[in-house]
Amino acid sequence: MLQVKERIENMAVEIAQKKMGTEFGRLGKDKASTEARQKGVATLKEVLGNFEKQLRRVGDSADLRQHKATQSSEKEFAVTLDKGVQQLDFDVNVEKLATVHQVQIANVAVFANGKVKLAGSASAISVDTTGLDLTTPEGVRELAKRINANPDLKDVVRADLRHVPGQTTPYLLLTATTSGKEAEFEVQSSAGANLVGASGAVVLAQGQDAVVKIGSAGMPEHYPGNKITLFNGVTLSLKKAHTGTTDTTRVSITPDMEGTATNMRALVQAYDAVRKQLRELMDPGTPGASVSPDGETKTDVKPAGAFYADASVRALLRDLERNFERPVTIDGKTFDPAQFGVQRNADGSVTFDQKRFEAAYADDREMLAKWFGDTADVMKRDTATDLDKQPAGMRLAVRIREWTDEITGVLKHRTDTDEIVAQRLADKEDRLRARFTALVARYTDELARAEQVQQQMKETRGFVDALFRGSRKSDE
Question: pLDDT at position 293, please?
Answer without folding.
Answer: 46
